[in-house]
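Please review the protein record below. Tell me whether the encoded fold seems credible here:
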Amino acid sequence: MAVRYQKLKLYLRGWMNYYAIDIRYQQACDLDQWIRRRICMCYWKMWRKPRTNIRNLMNKGVSDVLAICCGISSKADWRSAQTKGIQIALNNERLKR
């Protein structure tokens, strides 16, 4: 993930410098939400197996029942990234670290 963060940082810095004049506040907020959800999706894909998903969610403070529901869900990665369990586990403070 460190390599992904580095590439994302370089890409966003260049993109924002190029489009900063034209971008509005709401568009910047929408882009920020999309990027955070995309990062959560990358973590979810990286964990791969349901057992690993459940274990990692529980280690990050999600309740047992909610972790199991999220871990065995048949939703796709993008849709799973918006579920409550993943939002609790990968909140803004954790993503900043």
User: Anything to note?
Assistant: The CA atoms of residues 53 and 60 lie 11 Å apart.
